[in-house]
Amino acid sequence: MSPEIVRLLTEAAEWRLYGLLFEYPGEAWREQVRALLPDLREDGLRQLGEAALQYATPGLHIALFGPAGSVPAREVKWQGGVQFGYLMAELNAYYEAFGYAASAEEVADHYAIELGFVAYLKMKQALALSEEAELRAEVVGEAQARFLKDHIAVCAEPISKLLESYAPEYLIEAGRRILALAGPSPRSAYPLALPDEIDDDSNEMMCGPAPEGEDLIHIQP
Q: Could you tell me the pTM of the whole model?
């Protein structure tokens, strides 16, 4: 394999770990973390995975990331009161364009799903390069960079700050690492919601159709 493919696969494993750290830690989750550990080339990343296996519990996950948790893990919370339908439509456009099957247990704007999507795109880009499909690899790489800026970066800083106050050390370190990769939060490009449309991380929010005539993102796989 070329150095570029190796780099992408290494980064894919790293981002997959970050996504898993924000998922509910059931038995299937533990199996996935254990299976991922050999693919983590950096000692510090393996230590994060091992710490998660030791300390992560359903109770801790709910206390931090549950509906009333200390660390809201949904992007809509950090987008500054945007119209929820626009955000969900764009996320689903990304996922459908690249064939990403997000977990049915979490909504599309959950941090774990978004982090996992970055890992998936890096895997997809590595596959395209291995097949010498340079144009396809370029399209996937551009989508990954845009998604990182427009979505991951929105959540990375506020979530990292809250983790500093409420989370165990392995999650604090993960938050710092994600923030370093994502960079500062950009200004939101979404239309603002009306005050009565804004719901504080509620499961009752529903994704409705966009207003007629509005253009949403269109992504080519």
A: 0.84
CATH number of the domain enclosing 61: 1.10.3480.10
Cα dihedral 182/185/190/193 (nearest 10)? 130
Dist. CA 193–CA 187, nearest whole Å: 15
Residue 218 inside a domain? The answer is no
Q: Is residue 209 part of a domain?
A: no
Q: Tell whether 205 is covered by a domain.
A: no
Please count the structural domains in the chain: 1
Per-residue pLDDT of the chain (221 residues; tens, 9 = 90+): 899 999 999 999 999 999 999 999 999 999 999 999 999 999 999 999 999 999 999 999 999 999 999 999 999 999 876 678 889 999 999 999 999 987 767 899 999 999 999 999 999 999 999 999 999 999 999 999 999 999 999 999 999 999 999 999 999 999 999 999 999 888 655 565 544 444 444 443 333 333 343 333 344 44
Residue 78 CA to residue 158 CA, distance in Å, equals 8
Nearest Cα to 122, choosing from 107, 106, 137? 137
Structural domain span for residue 93 = 3-194
| Residue 200 forms part of a structural domain | no
Beta bridge partners, 82, equal 192
